[in-house]
Amino acid sequence: KQEVTQIPAALSVPEGENLVLNCSFTDSAIYNLQWFRQDPGKGLTSLLLIQSSQREQTSGRLNASLDKSSGRSTLYIAASQPGDSATYLCAVGGLNFNKFYFGSGTKLNVKP
Amino acid sequence: KAGVTQTPRYLIKTRGQQVTLSCSPISGHRSVSWYQQTPGQGLQFLFEYFSETQRNKGNFPGRFSGRQFSNSRSEMNVSTLELGDSALYLCASRGMDGQGNTGELFFGEGSRLTVL
């Protein structure tokens, strides 16, 4: 069964810092990987989707990479801002891509 | 293009009652999945529907059920509510690959259920 782990569980950084969030998965036979952001009490907002054939995706200050062979993905946030404070979750889509496996998230706090 | 719409946003029920939650997916999306989110367990998959058929089911008791209509709107029902059913219930829709979509998951804002 696919297991998804996100480390660290929480992270606090000063504004302006570049940071990396990690996501690891146990089964490299994946269909895609998606990063989400969740604000307290809200739904999940899609940030980036990486197909299994891709190595990275970029959107603004965000860059996500995927290394299937090592079972790892990273989300890089450049020049962090207080508005980036939220919980970030990664989800791995299985080859039976009807199922998605979620990590428990990294709670990010960016201090002004 | 409208996003995923979930109703109601908040509701309070008492133990033993039942509840029905509704989800309207993004227009053109035929896959709808449901998740339960609690502080202790995180996001847990409930079930997924595609073209009115349940394709996958998570490890939840039979009190949790769902259905999908011909217009892709979906409902989930929880019967005989327990205190532990208090959670944020999230619905996600997805356009299927091979139909000009990427397979990306889009979530609604959720329905916050409190069981007293």
What does this structure look like?
The complex is a heterodimer of chains A (112) and B (116). Chain A is mainly beta and 112 residues long. Helices cover 0% and strands 60% of the residues of chain A. Chain A is built from no helices and eleven strands. Chain A has strands at 4-7, 10-14, 19-25, 30-38, 44-51, 56-59, 62-67, 72-77, 86-94, 100-102, 106-111. In chain A, the strands form two sheets. In chain A, strands 2, 4, 5, 9, 10 and 11 form a six-stranded mixed sheet that branches. In chain A, strands 1-3-8-7-6 form a five-stranded antiparallel sheet, with no helix packed on it. Chain A starts with a strand and ends with a strand. The relative contact order of chain A is 0.34. The model of chain A has no long low-confidence stretch (mean pLDDT 94). Chain B has 116 residues and is an all-beta fold. Chain B has strands at 5-7, 10-13, 19-24, 31-38, 42-50, 53-57, 64-68, 74-78, 87-94, 105-107, 111-115. In chain B, the strands form two sheets. In chain B, strands 2, 4, 5, 6, 9, 10 and 11 form a seven-stranded mixed sheet that branches. In chain B, a hairpin with a 3-residue loop joins strand 4 and strand 5 (42-50). Chain B is globular and about 45 Å long. Chain A binds chain B through residues 31-32, 34, 36, 41-46, 49, 51, 89, 91, 93, 96-100, 102, 104-105, and chain B through 4, 6, 31, 33, 35, 42-43, 45, 48, 50, 55-56, 88, 90, 92, 97, 102-110, 112.
